[in-house]
Amino acid sequence: MTKVGILTSGGDCPGLNAVIRGAVLKGETVHGQEFVGFLDGWRGLVEGDAVPLDRSSVRGLSNQGGTILGTSRFGPYQTPEGGAQNIARTLDKLGVDAVIAIGGEGTAAASKRLFEEGIRIVGVPKTIDNDLGRTDYCFGFDTAVEIATVAIDRLRTTGNSHKRCMVLEVMGRHAGWIALHSGTAGGAHAILIPEQPESIDQICAWAMSVRDRGRAPMVVVAEGFTLPDMTEAHSHKGLDGFDRPRLGGIAEILAPIIEERTGIETRATVLGHIQRGGVPTAFDRVLATRLGMAVTDLVADEDWGHMVALHGTRIARVGFDEALAHHKLVPQERYQEMRVLFG
Ligand SMILES: Nc1ncnc2c1ncn2[C@@H]1O[C@H](COP(=O)(O)OP(=O)(O)OP(=O)(O)O)[C@@H](O)[C@H]1O
Ligand SMILES: O=P(O)(O)OC[C@H]1O[C@](O)(CO)[C@@H](O)[C@@H]1O
Ligand SMILES: [Mg+2]
């Protein structure tokens, strides 16, 4: 019987538990696989910290946010106990034949390296940012967009009452998909994303034209957005577990500038981790369940070095190298399509 270890790595994301449930249910019933879960991402794999996972441990999981396995930004090459050779020894000791790594582009990059160094590993793409290449959507994105859209709807009623400009900051380190989709759904008057610099003059011009027709401006900004004179995304919260700047706070930079330049009273709201928490939408539950089920086929076929992906409505397989070669940013024309409605 093939024994499979599952881990969740990187930022958490609604739908992770549905993937775990889908994999265990199909893996057990169709392929006769047995499962363990590594705790806290790569840490559990490196330290051999695993718990048994069976049908009863995944019962009722598809609607639960977060991950029952825990996650982290710990790296498989970060400590002397890490690296492919040590990990292979740990897997042997635990009797684990294959690894399923559920994560974003960082997790896929680590998985690719482990695969190239001989570890039998496959992947499931996850990120609320939706910026992983060669998959049309990642689970978690739809939930994040839904939460951000509700936030816009709510900010608009209070903004309208006070005739204020409301600036909502959503996540999106390199890619503005959450801002673009929630801003479109919520009818924002300006959407600011990392891929497209906009000047403060332009942002204020949009806000004033909204005010001039008697409306309250609604601006949605992704955390990774930069003004033309900024060399990098705004960060004042130190570094994350992988030594990257923790983003967040650009809305609080923009709001006083907009207020000063336009004379419109302005408020900033940073949505933060609210958009990563709570129950996944039905779309994300379905996608996550299908991906979890499909990844057990990769294990059964020994298709190491690949991850499952969504192509249209079909679940496909792509190599880690192929997925990593294509960072899915918002294309210029997709932004321009919505930009004509700004102001
Ligand atoms: N090129 C790499 N080689 C080895 N390990 C890596 C590499 N890139 C990332 N990692 C490790 O994998 C972990 C997970 O990556 P990361 O923190 O970027 O999350 P992610 O999987 O991309 O999800 P998220 O969408 O939250 O960013 C990192 O914290 C780091 O420890
Ligand atoms: O959990 P953390 O480390 O605060 O991660 C925040 C980052 O993770 C993401 O939610 C997903 O990559 C980004 O949008 C954001 O920059
Ligand atoms: Mg990442």
UniProtKB/TrEMBL annotation:
<keyword id="KW-0547">Nucleotide-binding</keyword>
<dbReference type="InterPro" id="IPR012003">
    <property type="entry name" value="ATP_PFK_prok-type"/>
</dbReference>
<dbReference type="InterPro" id="IPR012829">
    <property type="entry name" value="Phosphofructokinase_III"/>
</dbReference>
<feature type="binding site">
    <location>
        <position position="11"/>
    </location>
    <ligand>
        <name>ATP</name>
    </ligand>
</feature>
<dbReference type="InterPro" id="IPR022953">
    <property type="entry name" value="ATP_PFK"/>
</dbReference>
<keyword id="KW-0460">Magnesium</keyword>
<keyword id="KW-0067">ATP-binding</keyword>
<feature type="site" description="Important for substrate specificity; cannot use PPi as phosphoryl donor">
    <location>
        <position position="106"/>
    </location>
</feature>
<comment type="function">
    <text>Catalyzes the phosphorylation of D-fructose 6-phosphate to fructose 1,6-bisphosphate by ATP, the first committing step of glycolysis.</text>
</comment>
<dbReference type="InterPro" id="IPR035966">
    <property type="entry name" value="PKF_sf"/>
</dbReference>
<feature type="binding site">
    <location>
        <position position="105"/>
    </location>
    <ligand>
        <name>Mg(2+)</name>
    </ligand>
</feature>
<feature type="binding site">
    <location>
        <begin position="104"/>
        <end position="107"/>
    </location>
    <ligand>
        <name>ATP</name>
    </ligand>
</feature>
<dbReference type="Pfam" id="PF00365">
    <property type="entry name" value="PFK"/>
</dbReference>
<keyword id="KW-0418">Kinase</keyword>
<comment type="subunit">
    <text>Homodimer or homotetramer.</text>
</comment>
<dbReference type="InterPro" id="IPR015912">
    <property type="entry name" value="Phosphofructokinase_CS"/>
</dbReference>
<protein>
    <recommendedName>
        <fullName>ATP-dependent 6-phosphofructokinase</fullName>
        <ecNumber>2.7.1.11</ecNumber>
    </recommendedName>
</protein>
<comment type="pathway">
    <text>Carbohydrate degradation; glycolysis; D-glyceraldehyde 3-phosphate and glycerone phosphate from D-glucose: step 3/4.</text>
</comment>
<feature type="binding site">
    <location>
        <position position="267"/>
    </location>
    <ligand>
        <name>substrate</name>
    </ligand>
</feature>
<feature type="binding site" description="in other chain">
    <location>
        <begin position="171"/>
        <end position="173"/>
    </location>
    <ligand>
        <name>substrate</name>
    </ligand>
</feature>
<dbReference type="InterPro" id="IPR000023">
    <property type="entry name" value="Phosphofructokinase_dom"/>
</dbReference>
<feature type="binding site" description="in other chain">
    <location>
        <begin position="127"/>
        <end position="129"/>
    </location>
    <ligand>
        <name>substrate</name>
    </ligand>
</feature>
<feature type="active site" description="Proton acceptor">
    <location>
        <position position="129"/>
    </location>
</feature>
<feature type="binding site">
    <location>
        <position position="164"/>
    </location>
    <ligand>
        <name>substrate</name>
    </ligand>
</feature>
<feature type="binding site" description="in other chain">
    <location>
        <begin position="273"/>
        <end position="276"/>
    </location>
    <ligand>
        <name>substrate</name>
    </ligand>
</feature>
<feature type="domain" description="Phosphofructokinase">
    <location>
        <begin position="3"/>
        <end position="298"/>
    </location>
</feature>
<comment type="similarity">
    <text>Belongs to the phosphofructokinase type A (PFKA) family. Mixed-substrate PFK group III subfamily.</text>
</comment>
<feature type="binding site" description="in other chain">
    <location>
        <position position="223"/>
    </location>
    <ligand>
        <name>substrate</name>
    </ligand>
</feature>
<feature type="binding site">
    <location>
        <begin position="73"/>
        <end position="74"/>
    </location>
    <ligand>
        <name>ATP</name>
    </ligand>
</feature>
<keyword id="KW-0479">Metal-binding</keyword>
<keyword id="KW-0324">Glycolysis</keyword>
<keyword id="KW-0808">Transferase</keyword>
<keyword id="KW-0963">Cytoplasm</keyword>
